[in-house]
Each structure stands twice: as structure tokens, then as C-alpha cells.
Design goal:
Blueprint (H helix, E strand, L loop, with lengths): L1 E14 L2 E6 L2 E7 L6 H13 L1 E4 L5 E4 L6 E6 L21 H19 L13 E14 L1
Parallel strand pairs: 3-6
Antiparallel strand pairs: 1-2, 1-3, 1-7, 4-5
């Protein structure tokens, strides 16, 4: 599993020119599910992201978590995070889990985040051609694997 976390002031995801998910201050999470990923790994990743202290306190130090600031999270599935260029210039996605495995695990990830935050987590549409807009804050971008 690979997650690219971007701390944002706002973010949205659209499909066919229709906004399907949007947030204000918080995290945009781009999520790639790999072959062999398990619910336990997904649960640990969700907990790690929730606990990460990536928001600044009054002294400008990263001391606050998403929970501490009552921030929001937008999750967008993105199998291209698992691109492999080992054999040339055209990416291979053989490390990505097949959709019938990846979608339930991505949904489980969202469920874990929802349970911890106590509110609905907006998402993109699994497998759709999506357009993502964001205003990065910092910028702060972290890769979790």
C-alpha cells in the first residue's frame, strides 16, 4: 500500500465535470493498493495517518494531528502510484492489486478513517477518470508505504 498525503487548504475531485468529493483544511490522500495488501496493513496505515502530527502549533512546529484541528480528509484511489519503470519508459502496474481486491481494501481504509474521525470521508470514484484540484498547504507532502 502506498499513500501520498498532501496537507491542503482545500481539495476536490470531479468525475464528468461533477464534483463528487471536496474538503476544506485537511488531507488529500492518494491511495494505491498493492498485491498482497491486507486489512491489517490498511488499518495500521489509517491509524498512522490519523496520528501523524503535520499541522503547526502557535510556534510553527508540527505538533497537531488531523483530529486536533478538526480537519477533513479526501481519499482518491490511484493505482498509478504503484508504477514500475524497471523495464523501460512505459510503466508497468503489475504491483497494483486487481480492482476486485483493491476496491474493497480502499473502502475498508475509508471506513477506518471514518470510524476514527467520526464523520463521513468524501472520496473519488474507484476506477473512474477523475480530475483533482487542490491548494497545497506548506507545501507538505508525505509518502507512506
Amino acid at each position: 500500500m502506498k499513500v501520498v498525503l498532501q496537507r491542503v487548504r482545500s481539495a476536490s475531485v470531479s468525475v464528468n465535470n461533477q464534483v463528487v468529493g471536496e474538503i476544506r483544511r485537511g488531507y488529500l490522500l492518494l491511495v494505491g493498493i498493492a498485491q498482497g495488501d491486507t486489512e491489517e496493513q490498511v488499518k495500521r496505515m489509517a491509524q498512522q495517518i490519523i496520528k501523524a502530527r503535520l499541522f503547526s502549533d502557535a510556534d510553527g512546529k508540527m505538533q497537531s494531528s488531523i483530529v486536533d484541528i478538526s480537519g477533513e480528509i479526501l481519499v482518491v484511489s490511484q493505482f498509478t502510484l504503484l508504477a514500475d519503470f524497471a523495464k523501460g519508459n512505459r510503466p508497468s502496474f503489475h504491483q497494483a492489486a486487481r480492482p476486485e481486491i483493491a476496491q474493497p481494501l480502499c473502502d475498508y481504509f475509508v471506513d477506518q478513517l471514518t470510524q476514527t474521525l467520526g464523520r463521513k470521508i468524501p472520496t473519488g470514484v474507484f476506477g473512474a477518470d477523475m480530475q483533482v484540484e487542490l491548494m497545497n498547504d506548506g507545501p507538505v507532502t508525505i509518502v507512506f508505504e
